[in-house]
Amino acid sequence: MRTLLAIIGLIVLGALGTVGFLYAQEGSGGSLEKVLWQIRTTVGQAIPALAPSEEAPVAAAPVTAAPAPSPAAAQNTAAASPSTTEESAAESGPLKFRFPAQCAIGRNCLIQHFVDAEPGPEALDYKCGALTTPANQGLHLRLPGPKEMLKGVPVLAAAAGEVLRIRDGLPDVDVKLVGRDALGSSGYGNVVLLKHRDGYLSAYGHLKRGSITVAKGQQVRAGQKLGEIGLSGATDFPHLHFEVRRDGKVVDPFTGLEAESGCGKSDEPLWNQATMDQLTYYPSAILRIGFSHVELNQAALEYGLLAGDDGISARNTKLVFHVYAAGLRAGDKARFEIHGPSETLLTGTEETVLENSPTAIFRTGPPDLGTALEPGSYRGSFTLLRDENGLLKPLLTASSTVVVK
User: Fold this and answer.
1) Are residues 268 and 299 in the same domain?
2) What is the pTM assigned to this prediction?
3) What are phi and psi of 31, to 5 degrees?
4) Which site in 3, 8, 165, 247 is 20 to 30 Å from 240, CA atoms measured?
């Protein structure tokens, strides 16, 4: 009898964890009927099915190679698939997670937001940095832009488990174009929800429409492809929302602590050792850098509309150097220089960042000359400086060249 009661207790805890994720996902726009439906399907109790399933047919999608590195180059790679020995050890020891996407941090993806570690209105990541938003409950693993998304970046199961829920069919579209109200309660877009042992759940949100390769009830192994990073749901940039819960409570995989436990603290990270060895905390990063003959907005930069190998026509009278950066803090200094043919200094400027910001666009260039640009090679350099113990130190440097012909 005691054994039976213990089993029932574990089942109920699993159901509560599912409800916690659903409530966080659907928010105030969700419905009690959907929550009750999920409890019923998870626990198997006789709770009336008050809402139909939201699941869509699973679209078969081939495994696609990760995109080529972006200009924001750094020498990190995602953790490799665990060996059979590692998988066997993982089954007997504490549950550990692997990196949930087939991309390289600092090369073709980056973590723009971490779990909010600080209670109250102030938002700080686990390193006490600015890479989070108030009450953020997951990692936002972003791509530089839709161009990389369209190439296909696989999302991988962070640990072995059972597919508890999927949702597919929502379009990959910037929420600023369609409006938040048009999405209803589907804030996380296309989703895969996995149930693991030891009371853990993991969620994978904003997946690309039609990319989901698993079905509800399916058993998946660690590292198995679930779908691809997309732009579905309430987001304006392509990324994976990866969220971990234990017994219904959000846990930061970098610390093993519940969300809002305080920055600078750590217990036992949930990542496996291979992943920990590869993950580097980048307080800032560059998403796009380059030149154009006009000022480009955020969408144009994310779609990669900067001048390429073809260069810029000398018939143009304007030259604009763009830097689209992530992870800015109030007080940071952004310095630019543009050198023209023969390394002539055309312009040198400095801007001060006024507030913490997940992303910012910096632009500079010589004034519109009213005459055609001089043919030749132009080089733009960018340096981001940050105050560390009263000293302004370079945090990030990058450069780009373009040919005017």
Assistant:
1) no
2) 0.73
3) -135, 150
4) 247
User: Whole domain around residue 25: which residue ranges?
Assistant: 1-53
Cβ contacts of residue 204 below 8 Å, gap of 6+?
100, 155, 191, 192, 193, 194, 226, 227, 240, 241, 242
- Considering the domain architecture, whether residues 24 and 39 belong to the same structural domain is answered as yes
**CATH number of the structural domain spanning residue 400:** 2.60.40
Residues 138 and 3: their CA atoms lie apart, in Å, by: 35
Written as one letter, the residue type at 343 is: E
Question: What ranges make up the beta strands (E) of 239-319?
Answer: 239-246, 249-250, 285-292
CA distance 148 to 238: 9
Q: Which residue has the tokens 């439906």?
A: 37
**Pair (28, 149) in one structural domain:** no
Give yes or no: residues 187 and 68 share one domain.
Answer: yes
pLDDT, tens digit, for every residue of 27-77? Answer: 433 333 333 333 333 333 222 222 222 333 223 333 333 333 333 333 233
**Residues with Cβ < 8 Å from 5, sequence gap 6 or more?**
none
Q: Are residues 5 and 147 in the same domain?
A: no
pLDDT tens readout for residues 160-198? 999 999 999 999 998 888 888 887 777 899 999 999 999
If asked whether residues 292 and 263 sit together in one domain, one would say no
pLDDT greater than 90 at residue 122: no
Domain tally, the chain: 3
Rounded Cα distance between 368 and 371, Å, is 8
Same domain, 261 and 194: yes
pLDDT band at 142 (very low <50, low <70, confident <90, very high): very high
Is 205 in the same domain as 300?
A: no
Q: Tell how strand 225-228 and strand 285-292 pair up.
A: unpaired
What is 316-353 written as a DSSP string? ----EEEEEEEEE-TT-EEEEEEE-GGG-EEEEEEEE-
Distance from C-alpha of 323 to C-alpha of 258, rounded to nearest angstrom:
35
The tens digit of pLDDT for each residue in 320-379 reads 999 999 888 899 999 999 999 988 899 999 999 998 888 899 999 887 767 888 999 999
